[in-house]
Amino acid sequence: MTDGGLGVAFFSPFDTHRYFLPWTPIRVSPIGLGPFFTHRGLEVLQSELLWIWLPAAVLAIAAWSSRRRLPSVAN
Q1: Residue 13 vs residues 9, 17, 45: alpha-carbon distances, Å
Q2: Residues 3, 26 contacting (CB under 8 angstroms)
Q3: What is the pLDDT of residues 5-19, one digit of tens each?
Q4: Which of 9, 14, 58, 64 is most deeply packed, by most CB within 10 A?
Q5: Domain ranges of the chain
Q6: Whole-structure pTM value
């Protein structure tokens, strides 16, 4: 789901075709420290927060809260 790279080789090594999703919301990070600390680097961090870290945090909190609500089974 990034806007760069070579794509994903789903059927490697049987097929060399690489696939891309039609929707690419995650920005690709610039290489190196200098280019990273620019406006482009900030855009990358924002897209990663929105599309990776926020959903992962919501999923982790939901899993944690559902485990807390389950009654313990004692033998």
Answers
A1: 8, 10, 33
A2: yes
A3: 788 888 999 999 988
A4: 9
A5: 1-68
A6: 0.63
| C-alpha dist (Å) from residue 18 to 2, 9, 64, 74, 75 | 14, 5, 36, 51, 52
Q: Which residues contact 15 (CB under 8 A, 6 or more apart)?
A: 9
Name the β-bridge partners of 2: 26
Quickly tell me which residue has 């789903």 as its tokens. Answer: 10
Sole residue written with tokens 């485990």: 67
Q: Cβ distance 19 to 8 under 8 Å?
A: yes
Rounded CA separation 24/45 (Å)? 15
**CA dihedral in degrees (56, 25, 8, 22; nearest 10)?**
130
Q: Which residues pair with 8 in a beta bridge?
A: 19
- Strand residues in 1-75 grouped as ranges (E): none
